[in-house]
Amino acid sequence: MKGQKILNYSFKKSNQSITLAAKPKSKSDSDFLNTDIDPQLMFQCLTKAANGLFENTSEVFQYELSSVPSSIFDCNRLPREACKSNLADAIWACGSDCIHEIDGEGFRYVLDGGSLLQRLPWTHGDSFGDITQMYVDHVIRKYKDPVIVFDSYPELPSIKDITHLRRTKGIISPNINFTSSMPCKTKKELFMSNSHNKQALINMLCDKLKDNDIRCKNATDDADLLIALTAVDCALSSEVVVIGEDTDVLVLLIHHVNQQCKRVIFKSDKMAINKKMKIWNIQQTRGFLGEDVCFLLPFLHSLTGCDSTSRLFGIGKGLALKKLNQEYMKTQGKFFMDNKSIKADIIKAGEEALTCLYGGLPLEGLNILRWRKFTSRVITGNTSVQVKSLPPTSDSGKFHSLRVYHQCQKWMSEEVDMDPTDYGWEIKRGKLCPILMDLPPAPDKLLNIIRCNCKQNCDTKRCVCRKNGLQCSVGCGECRGLNCSNSVPIAESDFTDE
């Protein structure tokens, strides 16, 4: 610019200094970095750069150091999908000898309506009246005096919006205004992917079931709690068999059924192939688990991942079930089952519970545990540290804890009316989405590192790093701060002959 008129001078875009913080934002409403950035690559770049910028690298581990909290979210920002059946398998392994086949008669049946809808295949070209009649005939033929409990799909945002999106894989059929005489010309899976269509079919099916003197109940949203409470109510006067496949229903039955109820059995309607079908005697299951574990089972299930909360990478439900027998873990869990707990206590108890699951020490905290596990694996490992294998930060962990508390309270009572946006959720495009974190992915000191994209040796002023008097870093596009003339000089070691 020297010697030139300012009005005649123009800045070239090629001379612009680009920082990590200035990279293009994603198309989503998120305030974080582009989701196209691989979280693992970003983590490796930032930890490498931090090693030369911070005297104490432990302070950077209060940040996720990646575009998403990788231990609880996939790189596409969706919560990690829960392996719910693993909890049922872990409980079964603890006391399968106590569970027997159904014997005797006089059972009342409670059916999971969602499971029933998925159970029977449709014939292409059948009318919707024929389809609903097929369900009615199936129920009359197999079950005596049943009560069928259906989900509801309101137009309002729901904490299961993300789960519904994942199940449909983003493919949703248009709204279909059908009558009983209208033939179904679309595939069942595609038809059921639209909540409007599914609700209309449930309404038609309920009308036909009631015409045949079959009791139906409709939940205000998710039916799992209503199924369990209906079973408890029926068990006051007769023995009950609950038909369903969802682990959520099993967990809620174990939590809500008490020893004063008559026998409650939980079984699947599926035909087992090459293996014995699991038939759960709920009272006997409660006996070998113990009262404390049964009371805290919804907390354990939601903490380690259910339909509304994320799975913790590398933390199995079987391991968590064993740790729930520890008094320290039980103490933290009781905060989540208490409807009077305040947010500060929930966040603190959630961090302690997560620290315990990841093998940390009491009162250590997630940030210190995260740094300690990273350094331990760097010293002892022979492969790169996977960011998803580290515990979440305290920042992202607090939102996970709030979502866990919200789900626990929804499973405790039908009368709970809590605003999800106060407990780790936010509304985006008319749907409830989980909040990932409050803090940026890394400290400003790291995000503002200037990066060049030189194709040559970075030995001229065209290199923006050299131009700004900085050495190339691992964030640079081509040289990665390793193989150019502007790299950090490597000190030669002095070797002496022995």
UniProtKB/TrEMBL annotation:
InterPro entries attached to this UniProt entry: PIN-like_dom_sf
Domain of life of the source: Eukaryota
Name recorded for this polypeptide: Tesmin/TSO1-like CXC domain-containing protein
Originating organism: Mytilus edulis (Blue mussel)
